Amino acid sequence: MADQADLLPGTLDVLILKSVSLGPLHGYGVLARIEQITQGALLVEQGALYPALCRLEHQGMLEAEWGVSENNRRAKYYKLTAAGRRRLREETESWNRLATAMAAALKARPSES
Amino acid sequence: MLHKLRSFWRAATGRRAFEDAMREEMRFHLESRAADLVRRGLPPAEAARRARLEFGPIEKHKDAARESLGLRLVDETAGDARYALRTFVRNKGFTATVVLTLALGIGANTAIFSLIDALMLRWLPVSNPQELLQLTLQAPGDKSAGESFSYAIVRALDEHTEMFAGVAGFSASAFAVGAPGSMSRVPGAIVTGGYYQTLGVNPAAGRLLGRDDDQPGAPAAAVLSYGYWERQFARNPQAIGQTLVMNGVPVTIAGVSAPGFVGADVGQVADITIAAAALPTVIPSAAPLLGKGNFWLGVLARPTPGASLAETTSRLAAVWRHTADTVIAPHWPPARRKAMADAIFVLVPGGTGRTYLREMYVKPLQVLMAAVALVLLIACANIASLLLARASVRQREIAVRLAIGAGRGRIIRQLLLESTLLSLTGAACGIGLAWISGRFVLDMISTGPARVVFDLTPNWHVLAFTSAVAVLTGVLLGIAPALQSTAPGPAPALKDDARTNTGRSRLLPSLIAVQVALSLVLLIGAGLFARTLQNLRNLNPGFNPEGVLLVELDGRGPALSAALLDEIRRVPGVAAASVSTHTPLSGALWSEPAVPAGQPLPERDTALFVGAGPRFFDTMQIRLLSGREFTERDAADSPAVAVVNERFAQRYFPNQNPVGQHLSTKINGTRRDLEIVGLANNTNAASLRAAPPATVYVSYAQLTGDISTTLEVRSAGAFARVASAIRQQLQPAFPNAPIEVRPLSAQVQATMVQERMMATLAGGFGVLALILASVGVYGLLAYSVARRTREIGIRMALGAERRGVIALVLRSARWPLTAGVVIGLPVAWASSRGIQSLLFGLKPTDPVAIGTATLVLVAVAHLAAYLPARRAARVDPLVALKCE
Q1: Among A46, A55, A57, whose Cβ lies nearest the Cβ of B56?
Q2: Residue closest to B71 by CA, chosen among A55, A90, A66
Q3: For residue B86, how many other CB atoms are within 10 A of its CB?
Q4: ipTM of the prediction greater than 0.90, yes or no
Q5: Confidence of residue B631 (pLDDT cuts 50, 70, 90)
Q6: Which residue among B17, B240, B612, B827 is least enclosed by CB atoms within 10 Å?
Q7: Of the candidates A46, A51, A75, which has its C-beta nearest B28's C-beta?
Q8: Are the Cβ atoms of A60 and B67 closer than 8 angstroms?
Q9: Residue A54 and residue B3: Cβ atoms within 8 Å?
Q10: What percent of chain B is predicted at pLDDT more than 90?
């Protein structure tokens, strides 16, 4: 557990968009996908996923549809909309910029400052 | 954004579905997780527990989801509203008082506003009314503009299609419709050929009048209003092409205008419309109206698309320069012709139609609007003090809520919601009240010169106005108590008992002072209007209208033989009878130039003229100061005679008896020499407010040409019996129009309609304000007595006398009352300047009105204060002290 990090604000939305971008998923599936793609490195309070899904759907980033799950239960499936895809692209770019900048900044040595 | 609104709407309306979906989604998650954990080897019970643990607090997540949609605000507001409604039901007396007060305040505002809306703001139901312009004509050097035009001018302008898509001329009228014996008078209009096309009105059946109908010799055709078609013909399409007998003349029904359209004259309904060219056929006596010298048509024009107002105005000026000559009456004196040719056309927005009522009622309605705004302010101050008093009772409740963690904003929001709910309920009742009272005001206006018809059904203008007023009122009401009751923080209110809380607010007495001041302003206004009406009623007009009956015999005068007049004089109950061309205060006036013989005749008219028959002065009871009145001997072939009034005599024959002198005049364009045979008292023939004009009476029998005729009968018996006897006597001689008998006193009353309306309404609002302010004073004292019961009990236990206690309580009413009067008097003084033009026979600073209003207010306020004071004096010291 010690190698798990808390989520930064705003990251959950990006993670949700990313996981859904690979194909329609239900809520629990999103959680599993996040765990899988982050290799369990990030800690998500499971229930917090739902307000985030609700918000993204409200903003028109996701589209929801009821379907049947792998264990034959009714489940709400989310899929990315065009607006969501655009948002994911923007967020990815800004994350990458931030990460590169942070990495560069943290690599700096005393003599260079 | 749109997407968000949609998803919010879906969630808010399909609330249960939203909640079900959320629950199901979360249950699916928990079950899937538990199943996974079981697969990893956990026992099912432990797996379910772990799944729930990992998920976190379900309700919190649900709430977060709702909040992300904005549903939380909806939930809280709905909760607040439910809570507020429960509180209202529990405090029925309080709620009823507030709602009733608001209904009166908002209702009065809505009523006056709906009249203003109907009179001034509502578009005509025509196509693109905002494009329409009203034509007015301004004589050089004259600020006021004439709104009437001659038939020739309207037709000439209608031909200039490069400037106007169409020009509509119209004038209200009335027709006697039906066969002899079953005739009824139907309000109508006379219009020019371009009328319907210019306004863009569509037919509901048949066709509307066009330019072809407005040619000399064109067959007379009538257009019915939709309402008339519905009432008289049950919307039968067969009615088109049928014949309508109007004034005894058959006229073909051409069509029916679109529903809702009743003419371009606001306040008057035109049920039957005919073309101006049909006038000589349908109303032969009105045929001279088509002459170039008569200005009688209101004009609306639609400019060609795209032309600006300035362009149209300058084009019109250019057109007028070379058309003026052909359309100005050739018989006019040169100076008048020149003034007309130099006149300037001013175009004003005309989409709301035209009406003489506007000029008459704009100012009164504005004053009334200000008055009802004051009434509403008083009502607000009243309710605000009630809410304040109640808020201090609720202090504990609010303190507890604050203590257990409610935010201040949240509580303020809830209190504002309560007051807004109250004001909306009040507004809903107020709209109903306005509907009824608006009708009452309209009935009053209709006792004036003409019946006034407005549709006062609340429309979106009125509803928007009222809702805005209601919401504003609600916030205004709620804000002070809300801020005050949430301000001090929870601790002191919880610790102290509200009754021992001595830190009293200044706000409550200040609100009372405001109410007193505003009521004083309204009462003084009411007093001024009441005195104005009284002054007009007490005025001696120089004739005695009581007991005189009038019969309009337009166009039938010459047929009224001396024998028929004699027969009328013999009808039982008739004391005297005569005929004349004009009757006092009828609104119709005739003037001509008249000067002592030998002086050059001026071009402008110098005196009011009245053609009077034998015994006219006797019938009207106009006193003769010298000489004689007209008799049967003053016939067409005898020497022309005149009677002048005192004012004319003073001007032209100062310090001498005019009887026996000669006048030179011009009557209907013909020079006449008259011998003065009598001198009569002055009469207010044109208006009660203006000084009596110089008047020359000429013998009716010596007039020629088309003259209007009214029969006047002084009756000694009951109005109804004499009227029906006269009707029976006259009808056989005039089969083509109904004989209408009306009292002269009603004609005199009609000229006071504006003053009567102001006196009644201002008086009503003054009384309303007085009641509200007294309730306010009563409430303030009752509340303070209730709070100080223990103090009073102690005082009485220590030996205070009843009278002392009463004085003690009354004293607390003294400063708001004094402050109110001190503020109210200068405010009234300043604002009464604005109503000066509406007053008659007194100054806005009339001491009687101001003194009476102040006295009444102070007396009533003291009475209101005395009731709680007496209750305080009855406090039993034992009970007061024990109840702690």
Answers
A1: A46
A2: A55
A3: 10
A4: no
A5: very high
A6: B17
A7: A75
A8: no
A9: no
A10: 39
